[in-house]
Every structure is written in C-alpha cells, then in structure tokens.
User: What shape does this take?
Amino acid sequence: MIVKERKGENHHHKQKTFEWHLARIDKFTGSKIGDLMKQGRGKGEQWGETAKSVIFEMFTLQNMTDEGRAEYIYQQMKKDFIQTRWGNDNESFARELYCEKTGFEVVVNGFTVNPDCEYHGGSFDGEVVGQKGIIEIKCPFDPMKHMKNVNLSRTGIDSTFEHYPQIQSNIETAKAEWCDFISFDPRQRDEYKIVIIRVMRDQFFIDAMMNRVHDAKSILDMMNNGVSIENAIKQIADYDKAISNI
Assistant: This one.
C-alpha cells in the first residue's frame, strides 16, 4: 500500500515541478553530492573541476534575476531525454512492487530539507511508514545496468557504488537508519524484474559529506562577497590546516 504524499515544514513540492526546481536552487542536493565530493587529479587537490562546477551552478542560479531564474527553470523542464522519461514512467510501478514484496507502506515525499542544515536536502523516493528507513528507486533504461544491480544484490553495496553518495545524503536528510535501494526493469523475467538492496547508515561517510557541504557553502558565501573560487578554496584549506594543528 502507498499512502498519500507527505506535506509539512520540511517536505516541499512534488518532484520535477517548477516549485521543486526552485526549492533546490540554494541547496546542495543528494543528486549532486557525489560530484561535490570529487577531488582533483593533482596531488593534494581537494576540489576537482566537477566539484567546482556544482558550486558554480549554484552561484550562477542564485545571482540570476527572478525572471531569469524562472526562464532557466522552464527551459530545463522542457528537456526530454528518453532515459529520464523511462525512469519517471516506471518509478511508481517499482514503488508498488516494493510495497507488495515487503509488506511496507511508503509515504511519497517531495523535496525535503535537512532539518539540521538549511542548505542541504534531497528528493528521496519514499519514506517507509513505521520504520527508520527510506527508499531510492532507479529504473535504468539500459537493461545491463539493471542486471549489474541484480549482481550487486549478491555482493552488497559499498562506497564505490555510483549512487552511494546520494543514498547516504538522503539517509542524512531523512534522519533514517537505512535505505532500500531498488532497481526495477519491467522488461526482465519476474525473478529479475526488481532487486532490493538494503544500505545502512554510514556515519563516517556522512560526517565527511557534511563537512564538505559546509565547506562548499563557505566557498559560495565568499564568492558572493567578491572572492574568486580559487582564493576561497585556498582560504578553506588554510583554515582546515590551522584547525588540525591546534
């Protein structure tokens, strides 16, 4: 059984709506955490170009006019990729099958703000009623990706998994203890149609992730005060070094 969409102080806006896009503009979100944590290729380069691009995107969107920001969001909403459409079309079926197989009830959330960090949040795909758990659904357009996820159910998910940062980010946002990662492909035989893999809260990873989020916010704030991203990163590094020497 699936219960209705949850609404409340920290639960905002159905996914993919204009309001959902707007709510995410000043937040470091689960879908971008993996990129934000990427280091550079050089020795000791803590912030790679991919991580910088996450901060630059937020800096750009925050400094648009309201009209410009709205136009940009509407343009993004018009983009239509077959992979994204496939995932969106099949997500509800995956959720229903998950509930059928586990007996759990799931609350469908919109964008959720981390109650302990106003600039961090995520859009996890459901909260399990009566449990300290959430779900993350992937419906790969490429059937081989799904079968690789089937194989993961036999080995387990660790920090090298591409969606691990997003999963842990959403666990932290929801203040959950675990996340059931769900991979669904309706084209497969019944025994391979859905795979459910439980991922437990990784506090060590979460602590490192939130330190990264706080540093990224400090860099963003400095950029908004006229400091270049390079100098902002250097100031953060110098501060961290000074703290570690105390």
The CA atoms of residues 149 and 155 lie 10 Å apart. DSSP finds ten helices and ten strands in the chain.
